[in-house]
Amino acid sequence: MRLPQARLDQVLDRFHEIEARMGAASDGAEIVRLSKEHAELRPVAEAVETLVKARAEAPDLEQMAAASDREMAGLAREELAELEARLPELERQVALLLAPKDKDENASAILEVRAGTGGDEAALFAGDLFRMYQRYAQTQGWRVEIDSVSEGEVGGYKEIIASITGDGVFGRLKYESGVHRVQRVPETEAGGRIHTSAATVAVLPEVEDVEIEINDADLRIDTYRASGSGGQHVNKTDSAVRITHLPSGIVVTSSEKSQHQNRARALKVLKARLYDQQREALDTARADARKSQVGSGDRSERIRTYNFPQGRVTDHRINLTLYNLAKVIEGEALDDVIGPLIAEDQARSEERRVGKECRSRWSPYP
Description:
Layout: H1 5-24, H2 28-65, H3 70-98, E1 109-115, H4 120-140, E2 143-151, E3 157-165, H5 169-173, E4 178-184, E5 195-205, E6 219-224, E7 240-245, E8 250-254, H6 259-282, H7 284-294, E9 304-307, E10 312-315, E11 320-322, H8 325-329, H9 335-362
Parallel strand pairs: 4-9
Antiparallel strand pairs: 1-3, 1-5, 2-3, 4-5, 6-7, 7-8, 9-10, 10-11
């Protein structure tokens, strides 16, 4: 695999053009847009510069390897061998960086965590998962806002929906969608027996208003009194909002104190779900993957297992097993799982790209 030099020059020309425009720009909106593109393109440009420099060294080393000075020629041949061994990896890294990205990679996200099979213990586990994502978001500098919550009878959550705002949220958390299984002695178990429970996680890209249009005539909006814990905390006004999207049957709720905020949050979640439906309709493979991952919330349909007695976390999609469960569930070491998932996804994307090139090259059809 050898990337065309013209393609590499195109990347560097664009990067230098952005740098020049940033220095001359005075409009605030343009500066923000250019800064974002500069930040996205910088790692690509740096990788391209490394590759271009390595390619340029090869002819000089070949010339030195043919020199009459044996010592110099020997050193040159060693360096040339090292360079030739390094070039394929540099080419691969640049190819991955230049590969088409999911346009939602840098988007903020809607996180939905729901208790699956396992009763009260499933709700407690859903609470643990949500706290894991909350703490992970803090380490990334992201902001978490709860949109809707239904608490469990003994703690945790039957369902909790939150917005996570920041750069690259969806690109990292999208791998969390699916059924998460826990094996541990529940707080609700007096006999000390290990139980297996499950919770489902769905991560949807948060969309801008221009990306999805909703006809007001397609909405049924109901207000109701939010439940509370009693006493002064009981909501005495009909501030909670339930929005039903009639064509799709999607129902979203928000139950904070302000009816105006609840309506806005519910619409935001509705747009995210409708947009995710569109993404699934356009990408059958992704739709099948998501259905097989999230499923019905049954314990057998799992992407990851958290085994507390052994302190073990296993991601079944890539057969990854780690023995740092305490740090993972605290959000400190979640990257130890997400990182390999991203690497595997990139490797598969590269395999598909190379396979497509080979089929195109050998196909008898134009």
